[in-house]
Specification:
It is a single chain. The chain is of the alpha/beta class. The chain folds into four domains: 112 residues, Methylthiotransferase, N-terminal domain (Rossmann fold); 114 residues, 2-Layer Sandwich (Transcription Regulator spoIIAA); 114 residues, Transcription Regulator spoIIAA (2-Layer Sandwich), CATH 3.30.750.200; 55 residues. 34% of the residues lie in helices and 18% in strands. The strands form five sheets. A five-stranded parallel β-sheet has the order 2-1-3-4-5, with helices on both faces. The chain has a four-stranded antiparallel β-sheet with strand order 16-15-14-17, with no helix packed on it. Helix 7 links the parallel strand 9 and strand 10. The N and C termini lie far apart (52 Å). Bound molecules: iron/sulfur cluster (SF4). The site of iron/sulfur cluster has 9 residues, from helix 5.
């Protein structure tokens, strides 16, 4: 059986799809290789959320096409969100590509790799994996992502994810719980729940308070140390959800809640509603309910019609909100997003300058908040030797999600009382110096 090499681009939700496709191929007898130059079949699982992500996907496809021209690769498969936008064009414009697999066609990867499938007619994606679906984890053994839902029903005017991923659909409750247990038994100490909007979990299944109930259940699993979730939608952050996080030590005191903006008029044109004042009240309630909670968010600057005053309002909001972690994106004028039709487009340089100013504001806030931890001790999840230097190990605190937030550098790893050498996945006590 030919060796298959995977490149996975984009978000953790796309990574889970890659892991499912790898699982299906391995069960089908294929050998997976981490080296593109060894692979006889190459699969690029693409992202197409915004223009820079699309460009990265195209560049990666062309890079892998080189291996087909000059390497051992005989087949090149393109999967993921770019296929949902350009399934025919990819095959027309890149002759090295042999087949395309959309986000709803993950389970057809075997036919694509085997040569029985080239392209399927576009249909609204409906695929959802479950706990019996084979999956090969690509993350370190001690942490794993767990997709609890797919798709999205929100009407955010700048976003094309509903077109790429389909309507919101939750996985079955018991299937998610079984998978979390299996991941724990396979060595995961931390499981991070993902979906486009995790806070809507269960609504389509008629489950009231679906996410709090799921978290309550996962908090009973002995195998896990931390359970975390990403992508909360602000108006779905309920008192019950906050109380549940506060009640169970296993539920990380951490909330990732993309707000996108703080100006009422910009939020209205984004079709997200609400305002900075309402968000400040929500943050107050979150902090009052969950002591020591870490807060992450992300914003878009340069949205059509964003005025200097709107941007000032956003800067004032960020200063008042005091987030632990924050990401800022420049608006990307994607031609099949509703916002493409809006007037008063903001110049790209202006948007980039606003992003830099907002990030500079947050850097000061983060630096001040990190300083408050010096001299204190915390439990931390050991990640292992740092990629930056063998002399340093990395770890994360409860308030740090994998890959996107800050991290700890450990300079000396004292052997524990029983002289056992520390390993990745261990929960250790660290003192911040
Ligand atoms: S909630 Fe997120 S994924 Fe859904 S439409 Fe809005 S930005 Fe897109």
């Amino acid at each position: 059986m030919p060796k298959v090499g995977f490149v996975s681009l984009g978000c953790p939700k796309n990574l889970v799809d890659s892991e499912v496709m790898m699982g299906l191929l391995a069960r089908g007898g294929y050998e997976l290789t981490p080296r593109a130059d060894e692979a006889e079949v190459l699969v690029v699982n693409t992202c197409s959320f915004i223009a820079p992500a699309q460009q990265e996907s195209v560049d990666t496809i062309l890079e892998m096409a080189e291996y087909k021209r000059f390497g051992r690769a005989r087949r090149l498969i393109v999967a993921g969100c770019l296929v949902e936008r350009y399934r025919e064009q990819i095959l027309e414009q890149v002759p090295e590509v042999d087949a395309v697999v959309g986000t709803g066609e993950v389970e057809r990867i075997l036919e694509a790799v085997g040569g029985e499938l080239r392209i399927l007619p576009a249909q609204p994606p409906a695929f959802l994996y479950h706990d019996l679906t084979p999956r090969i984890l690509s993350t370190p053994r001690h942490q794993a992502y767990l997709k609890i839902a797919e798709g999205c029903d929100h009407p955010c005017s700048f976003c094309i994810i509903p077109q790429l991923r389909g309507a919101f659909r939750s996985r079955r409750f018991e299937s998610v719980v079984r998978e979390a247990q299996n991941l724990g038994r396979a060595g995961a100490r931390e499981v991070t729940l993902v979906g486009q909007d995790t806070t809507s979990y269960g609504e389509d299944l008629g489950l009231r308070d679906g996410l709090p109930r799921l978290l309550e259940r996962l908090a009973q699993l002995d195998e896990l140390y931390w359970v975390r979730f990403l992508y909360a939608y602000p108006n779905r952050v309920t008192p019950r959800l906050l109380e549940t996080i506060a009640k169970y030590p296993k539920l990380a005191r951490y909330l990732d809640m993309p707000l996108q903006h703080a100006s009422r008029s910009v939020l209205a044109r984004m079709k997200r509603g609400s305002s900075g004042d309402a968000f400040l009240k929500l943050l107050e309630r979150i902090r009052a309910t969950i002591s020591g909670v870490a807060l992450r968010t992300s914003f878009i600057v340069g949205f059509p019609g964003e005025t200097k005053a709107d941007f000032r309002e956003l800067c004032d909001f960020v200063r008042a909100a005091d987030f632990d972690w924050m990401g800022v994106f420049c608006y990307s004028d994607v031609d099949n997003a509703q916002s493409f039709a809006l007037g008063s487009k903001v110049n790209e340089e202006v948007a980039a300058e606003r992003r830099n100013r907002l990030m500079a504001t947050q850097k000061e806030i983060s630096a001040r908040k990190l300083k408050t931890r010096v001299g204190k001790r915390f439990p931390a999840l050991l990640e292992g030797p740092s990629k930056e230097s063998d002399l340093v190990w990395e770890a994360r605190l409860e308030g740090m999600a994998p890959e996107i937030d800050g991290k700890l550098y450990l300079t000396d790893i004292e052997a524990s009382a029983d002289r056992r050498v520390a390993q990745a996945g261990d929960i250790v006590t660290v003192e911040v110096t």
